[in-house]
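Appendix B: a complete holo record

For completeness, this appendix reproduces one full record from the ligand-bound portion of the collection. The bound molecule is zinc ion. The inputs are the chain sequence and the ligand SMILES; the output is the full three-dimensional arrangement of the complex, encoded as C-alpha cells. No fields have been trimmed.
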Amino acid sequence: MAPAHALTIDVEEWFHDDWRSDRGADWNDLPSTVVDDVLLVLDLLARAGARATFFVLGDVARRKPELVRRIAAAGHEIASHGDTHRPVPTQSRVQFTADVDASLAVLSDCIGAAVTGYRAPYFLRRARDLWAIEVLAELGLRYDSSYVPVRWMPYLGRDIPRVPYRHQCGVWEFPLPFAERFGGWNLPYAGGGPLLRFLPYRVVEQALRAHEAAVGPAVVYCHPWELDPEVRTLPGTPRYVRLWKQLGRARTLPALTRLLATFTFRPIREVYVHELAA
Ligand SMILES: [Zn+2]
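The structure of the chain with zinc ion bound, as generated:
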C-alpha cells in the first residue's frame, strides 16, 4: 500500500510573505484574508478525508485564536511558523529564541497542548544557519521541517537530504523532497508555486510516486493565500515579484483538489510517528 505523505500548510497572511515583511507590514492597514483562505483549505481537506500539519504564525494565532482552535478541532496538527515571519538569518540567537518562544506560548495557549514542530519563514538555506535548530531543542521542540540547502535559483544544491534524519541536538529534520538531477537541476516540486501553480500536475504526481518508491513518505506544503484568486501585493512591490505570485494562480485550486484525491495525506506527527517516538 502507498504510504501516507505529510501535508503541511504554512498559515500566514498574504502580506507576511512580502519581500519586505521583516520591515514591519502593518496589519491594521491591510485586508486580512487568512480566515477565508484557511477555511477553504479546511473544507478541501475534509472533503478528501485528508489531515495536515498547520505551521501557524504566532502573529496570526494572537489575532485569530478561534481559527487555530478550529484547525485543531478538525484533527489537524498545530505547529509553529515562528512569530513574526522574519527570516532567521536576520535575527540574532536571542531574537530568534524570543520569536519562537512567543509563538509557542500563543499556540499552546490556543490549543491547550504543547507544540512539537517548527518551520522557519523562508526556510533555512545555509548550513551556517543551523544554530537555529539548537534553539529549537532548547525550547523543547521535537522536529523541524525547514532545512533546504539550495541556492534560491536555480536550486543547485549538491547534498540535498532525502530521508528524515536527526540533528546532533536530537531534533528530527523532515526534509522537503526534490526530484534529483532533473535536466541537471534539483527540481523542487513539493511546495509553493512548483507544487500547484507552475509544474504540470502529471510531473508532480510522477515525482511523488518516484519518491514514494525510493524513499517513502514525502513532505509537501502550500500557503492558504495561494488559493485566493486575487493576487495581493503591497504598494511598491517590484513587477517581477507580482508576476511570480500571479503565475498559474488559477491552477492552484484544481491542482490541490486533484492531489488530495490521488494521495493520502496525514500530519507530520502521524506520518513520522516512529521517528518521533525514538
Ligand atoms: Zn511563511
